[in-house]
Amino acid sequence: MSELRDLLQDNLNIEFRAAVLSNPRKKDGPVKVKVRPLLKKQQLMFQFETFQNCQAFHRNVDAREACRLLEEHMENMRQMHMETAGTVYTVLVSKKGRVTVKKKAQENREKEVDMSHNRKKRYILEEGVPVPFLKDLGVMTTEGRVVNSKFDKFRQINRFLEFIEDILPELDRDRELTILDFGCGKSYLTFAMYYYLHELKGYDIRVIGLDLKKDVIGHCNELGQKYGYEKLRFLEGNIADYKGADRVDMVVTLHACDTATDFALAKAVSWKAKVILSVPCCQHELNGQMENEVLGPVFKYGLIRERMAALVTDALRAQHLEREGYAVQILEFIDMEHTPKNILIRAVRNGREGENREAIRRCEEFLHVSPTLGRLLGHEGKQ
C-alpha cells in the first residue's frame, strides 16, 4: 500500500482536518476509526477514536505513529474518508488490497477546526455506540440512539463521567479500589461509573450502591448480574450505618436530601476517602436558622432566603472539608435549564488541614447557623 503511505505522509500535517475509516472486513476487530488533529502543549498530535465491542478507545499519537496506525487499520477497512484544508479524499481498498484514491476540492475552505484537547460536547459515552445498561435503563435504543425524552439524562451521565475522568490521576491502579455510592436510586450513574472505570479504563474496583428503596436495589442487582459486573453490588441501607468496609477510596453521594448529605460527607471523612463527589439537594437546614440584622431586608423574601441558604450550606460544607485536609471545588454539575440540583462538590484528599477554622467560626456566627457537618466532624466550638 505504498500509494496510501505516500498520501498519509503528505497530509498528516497542520492542514489535516479529519479522517473516518469504516466498512471493516472482520467483525471481531474495530468497526470504525475516527481521527482528528489536536494541539497538546503546542505540539500537533492526532487523536484516534477506535470503536470496538460497543466501546470507544482513545489514543493520542504524533504524525509518524498516526501514519503507521492508519496503514494498519486500513488492512481491515474497505474505506477511508479524509479531509484536509484544501482536498477531500476517498480511499477504497479492494479484496485483493488494491488501493483507489478519489479526490475533490474542499468546498468549505474557511471552516475552522477545533484542535483543543477537550472539545465542547465531547461525550465519553457516545451516541451511536450501544451501551447495554443504557439500553436496559431506557436511555438508548438497541442501535445506540439516545431516546429523545432521555437526552438530558444522557448528558447528565456524561457530565458525571467527566468529573471522574478529571480525578483519575488520584486513583491507585495497583490495587482494588472500593467505591461507595449512597442514594444510588435507579443507578444510572452507578452503572456508568462501573462501566467507565472497569470496562473502559481497566481499574480494579469494587462498587457498592446504597439506597433505602428495597425494590430498586433488587432490580439493580439483577442488571449487574446480567452484565457480568461481578464487583458491583447494591444494598439496602443508609451510609451512616454502613459497616461493610474498613477502607473506602471514593464516596459518591447524589441528591441525598438535606442533612443526609452531611452524614455521607462525615462518613467519607472518617474513612479518609481519597475522592468525594457530592451533588446535594433540598438544603433546608440553614434556611430555618439564618438570622442577621444587616441581611434582614434580603431574608424578607422567601425565595431569595431559600436560595441563599442552599448556597451558604454547600459553601460551608466545602470549608469544613478543606479543614479536614481536602482540596475542594464547587462545580456546575448540569445546566440549570435541565435540573435545579446543579452544584457538585468535588473533594480530593491532600492531607493538608485548612487554616480556615476561625473564618468558618466568624461566618457561622455572623449568620447564626450551626451546620450538621461541622457538628458531625467535631468542629463546633473548636478554635
Mean pLDDT: 88
Based on CA atoms alone, the radius of gyration comes out at 25 Å
- What is the CATH superfamily label of the largest domain? Vaccinia Virus protein VP39
Main sheet: strand order: 4-3-2-1-5-6-7
Which range best describes the helical content: under 10%, 10-25%, 25-40%, 40-55%, 55-70% or over 70%?
25-40%
Quote the beta fraction: 25-35%
What's the level 1 CATH class of the largest domain?
Alpha Beta
Class from secondary-structure proportions: alpha/beta
What is the 3D shape? Answer: elongated
Q: What string gives the helices and strands in order?
A: HEEEEHEEEHHEHEHEEHEHHEEHH
Question: How many strands?
Answer: 14
How is this structure best described in words?
The chain is α/β, with parallel strands linked by helices and 383 residues long. It has helices spanning 2-11, 63-74, 132-136, 151-166, 188-200, 214-227, 260-270, 296-299, 302-323, 357-367, 372-376; strands spanning 16-24, 32-40, 43-52, 55-61, 77-84, 87-93, 99-105, 177-182, 205-211, 232-236, 250-257, 275-281, 326-332, 343-349. The strands form 2 sheets. It has a 7-stranded antiparallel beta sheet, with helices on one face. The radius of gyration is 25 Å and the shape is elongated.
Kindly summarize this structure in a few lines.
The protein is of the alpha/beta class and 383 residues long. The chain has helices spanning 2-11, 63-74, 132-136, 151-166, 188-200, 214-227, 260-270, 296-299, 302-323, 357-367, 372-376; strands spanning 16-24, 32-40, 43-52, 55-61, 77-84, 87-93, 99-105, 177-182, 205-211, 232-236, 250-257, 275-281, 326-332, 343-349.
